[in-house]
Amino acid sequence: MSETNQHADREGETILSVRDVGKRFSGLQALDGVDMDVKRGEIIGLIGPNGAGKTTLFNCISGTFPPTSGTVTLEGEEISGLPSHKIARRGLARTFQITRPLEELTVVENAMVGAHIHTRRRSEAEKIAMEQLEFVGLADRATEEAGELTIGAQKRLELARSIATKPKILLLDEIMAGLTPSESKQMLDLFRQLRERGTSLLIIEHDMKAIMNISDYVKVLNQGKGIGFGRPQEIVSNERVIEAYIGGSDVDA
Amino acid sequence: MSTIESVRESYRDFDDQTYAPFVKGVALFGFLAALPYIIEIDVAGMELAATLSLKVLILTVIYAYTAQAWNIMSGYTGQFSFGHAAFFGIGAYATQKLLADLALNPWVGMLVAGVIAAGYGLIIGFLTFRFKLKGHYFALATLAFAELLRFVVVNMSELQGANGYFKPFPRDYGAEYGLLAFQFQSDLPYYYLILGFLLVVTLISWLIKNSWIGLYFFAIREDESAAASVGVPAFRYKMLGVAVSAFFTALGGAYWSMYFNTIRPDTVFALFKNVELLLPAVVGGPGTLIGPIVGSFIVTPVSEVARTTFTNINGLDRIIYGAFLVAIVIYSPRGVVSWPSRARALWNRVRSTDSNEEVNN
């Protein structure tokens, strides 16, 4: 695909590679020949109008369901078709569009579920979990029930739970939706710190300003197809992208 | 700062200690061990034993035990089984069959029965979990697997059909009354035996709860796909839950078959047995360690005493079970053990509105 080759000089080791991925739901082609690479320590923004297939792509990558065609590889090994818990164990974690706290568990237990991927010892998992809570700023609420947190705090908890698996790449599905401006700013700051640790991020977000600000590269989907890939400034001037957003009736982003 | 608060404060300090669970366990089981004597204490010419016999206590602990076993699967992993009579019945039947045909010691027979039940549980689990049955559909499927066994046993002459088994005398399998024979000539040792069973399954539950297994179980209960997304192999752990739960439930059935003189398909595999086995856990608090025990001490004595007192009202015990179930599900799905914290929350709310009013005045 020309849009990927355009930046073939991108440096760094490829962590995640999506090749010609398609997903068909009885009659509906939700994804069609999507290609994408994510390199170590990169932040890639994934944008597109509603129904473009962004979350479907996340689901295909993270193993919620397998793609109907194409392959996904993580550090050179094929992961497409594996169940999500195995993919998580290989170093790919995700969050969900609608937060899914484990409500009746405490905040620290939520994070421990992620941490147990590395150890069966409870004390060790608790230590890893507390570090992540510290990182997202929830350490002082460790013993509260997760269901009682505000949406903003639940989003940070979800981030803590997924990074407790110490992923090489993290897929974030609209984790900033519903946050206050100051919470969003805080979240962007966490993204940058994660990148500095060498974690790659693939982010779906509707806040264009935020995504253009944080992303190294932006991938644009429309009607299940990749229609653009490039630096944020290239994307905002890309005619096909503008057409997809302005030309369509759905201008929500 | 009231005395209540200072008591609560010191309780919290105690609760933080590593020895706290041990102390609580000793206190609870010490109390249960003393119960047969407590009910005989004469208070103003009345003793509890007049209505609450040792037989009722044994039944109560049996159901506390089975509810604890049910809880490991349904309370912890959230896969609500309505068919634990299958495992209970397998436990009773396998033990008696091996005893009758091979004169196999019931202690050994019981373990064999546990393994068979775990195997049946794994078959149920494989079929239901593979096809992602959840909630009501899962509960109904488990019920179907239990009813299936009842019909099979009723129609199998190899398992004595509808007549069931009579418990043999110890001498029939070369033993004397006592622990080794799993038979006693009075009720008191039977009580301590089932109390020992309860202690073991409670200990296992506690170990599960305090390990990564328990956390994985709870994560699956709360949100299976969110759990899977951070590396929890949900299918495997649900299978583990059903196997452990089925194994221990079968041991309860084995005990039942060695305590009562007969077992029949319409007793151990009874449709209503499914309710009796799980209700204490639901009433007490599903997913908690103490809930099944507390629940059984609420549900079982009341229904047993009602059944034996009002003999002319047929099925009163079942009406009581039904009323408990409906009331708990509607008003307190977290069970009786959640009441202290709920009362505390209510109390705090009342107090804070009071103090607000004072400020406003």
Automatic annotation (TrEMBL), chain A:
<dbReference type="Pfam" id="PF12399">
    <property type="entry name" value="BCA_ABC_TP_C"/>
</dbReference>
<dbReference type="InterPro" id="IPR003439">
    <property type="entry name" value="ABC_transporter-like_ATP-bd"/>
</dbReference>
<dbReference type="InterPro" id="IPR051120">
    <property type="entry name" value="ABC_AA/LPS_Transport"/>
</dbReference>
<dbReference type="InterPro" id="IPR003593">
    <property type="entry name" value="AAA+_ATPase"/>
</dbReference>
<dbReference type="GO" id="GO:0015188">
    <property type="term" value="F:L-isoleucine transmembrane transporter activity"/>
</dbReference>
<dbReference type="Pfam" id="PF00005">
    <property type="entry name" value="ABC_tran"/>
</dbReference>
<comment type="function">
    <text>Probable component of a branched-chain amino-acid transport system.</text>
</comment>
<dbReference type="GO" id="GO:0016887">
    <property type="term" value="F:ATP hydrolysis activity"/>
</dbReference>
<dbReference type="GO" id="GO:1903805">
    <property type="term" value="P:L-valine import across plasma membrane"/>
</dbReference>
<dbReference type="GO" id="GO:0005886">
    <property type="term" value="C:plasma membrane"/>
</dbReference>
<keyword id="KW-0067">ATP-binding</keyword>
<comment type="similarity">
    <text>Belongs to the ABC transporter superfamily.</text>
</comment>
<keyword id="KW-0547">Nucleotide-binding</keyword>
<dbReference type="GO" id="GO:0015192">
    <property type="term" value="F:L-phenylalanine transmembrane transporter activity"/>
</dbReference>
<keyword id="KW-0813">Transport</keyword>
<dbReference type="InterPro" id="IPR032823">
    <property type="entry name" value="BCA_ABC_TP_C"/>
</dbReference>
<dbReference type="GO" id="GO:0005304">
    <property type="term" value="F:L-valine transmembrane transporter activity"/>
</dbReference>
<feature type="domain" description="ABC transporter">
    <location>
        <begin position="16"/>
        <end position="248"/>
    </location>
</feature>
<dbReference type="InterPro" id="IPR027417">
    <property type="entry name" value="P-loop_NTPase"/>
</dbReference>
<protein>
    <recommendedName>
        <fullName>Probable branched-chain amino acid transport ATP-binding protein LivG</fullName>
    </recommendedName>
</protein>
<dbReference type="GO" id="GO:0005524">
    <property type="term" value="F:ATP binding"/>
</dbReference>
<dbReference type="GO" id="GO:1903806">
    <property type="term" value="P:L-isoleucine import across plasma membrane"/>
</dbReference>
From TrEMBL, chain B:
<feature type="transmembrane region" description="Helical">
    <location>
        <begin position="319"/>
        <end position="337"/>
    </location>
</feature>
<protein>
    <submittedName>
        <fullName>Branched-chain amino acid transport system permease protein</fullName>
    </submittedName>
</protein>
<dbReference type="InterPro" id="IPR001851">
    <property type="entry name" value="ABC_transp_permease"/>
</dbReference>
<feature type="transmembrane region" description="Helical">
    <location>
        <begin position="190"/>
        <end position="208"/>
    </location>
</feature>
<dbReference type="Pfam" id="PF02653">
    <property type="entry name" value="BPD_transp_2"/>
</dbReference>
<keyword id="KW-1133">Transmembrane helix</keyword>
<feature type="transmembrane region" description="Helical">
    <location>
        <begin position="77"/>
        <end position="95"/>
    </location>
</feature>
<feature type="transmembrane region" description="Helical">
    <location>
        <begin position="107"/>
        <end position="129"/>
    </location>
</feature>
<feature type="transmembrane region" description="Helical">
    <location>
        <begin position="136"/>
        <end position="153"/>
    </location>
</feature>
<feature type="transmembrane region" description="Helical">
    <location>
        <begin position="45"/>
        <end position="65"/>
    </location>
</feature>
<keyword id="KW-0812">Transmembrane</keyword>
<keyword id="KW-0472">Membrane</keyword>
<dbReference type="GO" id="GO:0015658">
    <property type="term" value="F:branched-chain amino acid transmembrane transporter activity"/>
</dbReference>
<feature type="transmembrane region" description="Helical">
    <location>
        <begin position="277"/>
        <end position="299"/>
    </location>
</feature>
<feature type="transmembrane region" description="Helical">
    <location>
        <begin position="21"/>
        <end position="39"/>
    </location>
</feature>
<dbReference type="InterPro" id="IPR043428">
    <property type="entry name" value="LivM-like"/>
</dbReference>
<feature type="transmembrane region" description="Helical">
    <location>
        <begin position="239"/>
        <end position="257"/>
    </location>
</feature>
<keyword id="KW-1003">Cell membrane</keyword>
<dbReference type="GO" id="GO:0005886">
    <property type="term" value="C:plasma membrane"/>
</dbReference>
